[in-house]
Amino acid sequence: DAGVIQSPRHEVTEMGQEVTLRCKPISGHNSLFWYRQTMMRGLELLIYFNNNVPIDDSGMPEDRFSAKMPNASFSTLKIQPSEPRDSAVYFCASSLGGGRTYEQYFGPGTRLTVT
Amino acid sequence: QQQVKQSPQSLIVQKGGISIINCAYENTAFDYFPWYQQFPGKGPALLIAIRPDVSEKKEGRFTISFNKSAKQFSLHIMDSQPGDSATYFCAALGGADGLTFGKGTHLIIQP
Question: Mind listing the pLDDT tens digit for each residue in A43-52?
Fold first, then answer.
């Protein structure tokens, strides 16, 4: 199994530009999570999908952030327009389970730098 | 509001010693408490987890101790090795949400 796949691994962009992060969950998993990691705030849950449906997006910082899951094997997290304070490592994780999810498998992350 | 408080922020232990990391939670609805291990440049990986119906769980050199009344749980790493050097996160899960993580502990095992 290839595990959770994220792309790109690194992204450097200028303030105001649109950024799209991509995730391919583990085949057969039906829950997908987007997290953001910073030194100041640690690991924060941004949004959680179950069976491709967004269940909880209360962690999405503001309207500049949006996430989609068009099918069971692909999800995107988009930031438009990006700001320097969005610089962080963004992780995607997937899990086999419904509303009560247990072991989550994390991808390698995308390190985003907004200048 | 920080729902899971983790300490210490950083920890240095001699090889062969015991590493202890503590966490406290507030939400009594939490019913699953995993620990994740993260190496530089990698995503967190599940290390060991416990449910509140038991007070201790051991897997190899790693043990979770759980105190439901105090709403605290801790990770003990016995015979700590340099390969254990990593960042450790406690977490909690309740309801239909994703995990709530502690801020992490940067552990260094000195040879």
Answer: 988 999 999 9
